[in-house]
Specification:
Length: 144
């Protein structure tokens, strides 16, 4: 407060008179006013900090809940896709077995028909007419 008082007494008005008598009550109130302003600013800062921390806590909790829901949804989707994939694999295996069985049955039927036709042709034993070529069974075909 001595510094403020000295500065106040050192100031002079343009007409040469001292300002210490007119400014003295204001300058004496200034330190108390400044202390009140600082105290109010500190209180406001604490209040703002508490509000910010509360908001941050709330936002963090909301974000964690949202992330948890997303993970649960993704896990459920992955489980569904896996189950459908396993069902598809099972169906494809079953279809492959059926197709393989059908192909084997078809091959046996064709071989039986071929063998019967070859037997029928061999039983005919028709001599070729003059000038006609004799048809022979190719070597890669089994005769029995």
């Amino acid at each position: 407060m001595d510094l403020v008082a000295r500065n106040a007494s050192a100031q002079r008005r343009p007409n040469g008179s001292s300002t210490s008598s007119a400014a003295s009550p204001r300058k004496r109130r200034a330190p108390a006013s400044a202390e009140k302003i600082v105290a109010d600013a500190r209180a406001d800062a604490k209040r703002v900090r508490r509000e910010a921390e509360a908001d941050a806590t709330r936002i963090r909790a909301e974000a964690e809940e949202h992330a948890r829901r997303l993970v649960l949804d993704a896990s459920a989707s992955a489980d569904g896709v896996r189950a459908e994939g396993m069902e598809l694999v099972s169906n494809l295996r079953e279809m492959g077995d059926v197709l393989r069985g059908n192909a084997e049955r078809l091959l046996r039927d064709i071989q039986a028909i071929h063998a019967r036709m070859v037997r029928d042709l061999e039983e005919l034993d028709v001599p070729p007419a003059s000038g006609e070529d004799v048809l022979e069974v190719p070597e890669f075909v089994s005769r029995g």
